[in-house]
Amino acid sequence: MGRTSDAREKILSAGRSLIELRGYSALGVAEICKTAGVPKGSFYYFFESKEALALAVIDEHWARQERDWTRVLREGDEEPLVRLRRLFDETEAMQRAGQQSCGTVAGCMFGNLSLEMSNRTEAVRARLQEIFEAQVDMVAAVVSAALERGEVTVADTREAARSVVAQVEGQVLFAKLYNNASQLGVLWANCLALLGAQAPRTPQGALAAL
Amino acid sequence: MGRTSDAREKILSAGRSLIELRGYSALGVAEICKTAGVPKGSFYYFFESKEALALAVIDEHWARQERDWTRVLREGDEEPLVRLRRLFDETEAMQRAGQQSCGTVAGCMFGNLSLEMSNRTEAVRARLQEIFEAQVDMVAAVVSAALERGEVTVADTREAARSVVAQVEGQVLFAKLYNNASQLGVLWANCLALLGAQAPRTPQGALAAL
Fold it and tell me: From which residue to which does any coiled coil extend (chains A, B) (predicted)?
């Protein structure tokens, strides 16, 4: 094993799993290398510091999540609010899958790191801010589409989207604390309330079940 | 300096400040003792472990916050929703004061520790669950009073209260991430939306300003 791209991938993967399970501060470079099965020299060949690894883990996680959010929220046949609902359903399903694979609800990596690190390293704070701004933009585009259809009542589309994302973070915090992904079942009804919306009707004309 | 109650207080106080600034994992007992100005032997005389100190810090912080919440939310001359609004105003004022004294918005200690530690130590998880249950109970009592007056529209008082608390945690996360307590200005309008409420009228009959 050595300075191969394979080693970088192993370090990234170990860093991602360990940060998800135990946060950033609790980890040392030695433990990350041990989990990755690479010598410590490899670590510093690929990453300047533990913080540089954290930034790479954040970027990789967001690249994946951004693809997921784009797929779920993209304009298509479905009504805007139905797309938002799908986002919540997928969020709950993902937390549930994580719990089944590692025993506990891991929560949102970006929320976890915001509370653990944002007041300690400016580079991480800036990166996390960019990610949440991007999330708010994506939700705002859907809220805006719903507003054009007269399905929501919001004074400021972007602020409303921010409140929806904040509500998700707050409920994911509870899901992690109670180790219970079902906590996220309330996201849909709360999102409708925050947006001053009614549940959208299904194509059959029946109200989509809450 | 030695095994006096004064030393215990100093350790607790150092632990509280350091946990608030940097979280739990980033701290070592040696650093806590150095900040407190007590020898390491004193630490283990009063606390079995760093986790035991964290639990004591959590308990002390909650004792103080519970008194504050009780004062703000207690039944009195003011309408239920006005009391809830006061809770948000005080939350914002406290985050702002913390920012002025230490340079950054520290967020909610219970939220911070929920995301950092709840999936790693069961004792901390259980204690934090109890605290959030108590918070939800206190908010639920106010929501219930508002429901009796026909001022809110909620199907489940306790679930609605939980959503209000989750929204606070989500917005406090953003306040910490953006180092901006003004983020919390939206709590009141969002709370009204989550509770299906109108802004209560002031004694003069004018709508309380959002």
Answer: none
Answer for the pair A95, A175: CB distance below 8 angstroms, yes or no.
yes
Which candidate from B111, B190, B196 shows the least CB-CB separation from A115?
Answer: B111
**Are residues A65 and A30 part of one domain?**
no
* Digit-coded pLDDT (tens) for A92-142: 999 999 999 988 999 999 999 999 988 889 999 999 999 999 999 999 999
Q: Do A118 and B176 touch (CB under 8 A)?
A: yes
Contact A197, A146 (CB under 8 A): yes
Give the structural domain span for B118.
57-194
By C-alpha distance, the chain A residue nearest B187 is A163
Do A1 and A42 contact (CB within 8 A), yes or no? yes
Contacts of A204 (CB under 8 A, 6+ apart): none
For chain A, what is the domain count? Answer: 2
Instruction: Quickly count: other Cβ atoms within 10 Å of residue B120's Cβ.
Output: 16
Please check whether residue B174 is in contact with residue A166, taking contact to mean a CB–CB distance below 8 angstroms.
yes
Residues A139-196 have pLDDT tens digits of 999 999 999 999 999 999 999 999 999 999 999 999 999 999 999 999 999 999 999 9
- Reference B93, options B182, B13, B26; nearest CA is B182
Complex-level ipTM beyond the 0.90 threshold: yes
**Residue A49 to residue A47: CA distance in whole angstroms:** 5
Residue A207 binned pLDDT confidence (cut-offs 50, 70, 90) = very low
Q: Are residues B161 and B184 in the same domain?
A: yes
Are the beta carbons of B120 and A165 separated by less than 8 Å?
Answer: no
The residue count for chain B: 210
**pLDDT tops 50 at residue B155:** yes
Q: Which residues of B touch A (CB under 8 A)?
A: 21-26, 104-107, 111-112, 114-116, 118-120, 125, 128-129, 132, 159, 162-163, 165-171, 173-174, 176-179, 186, 190, 193-194, 196
The answer to whether the beta carbons of residues A105 and A176 sit under 8 Å apart is yes
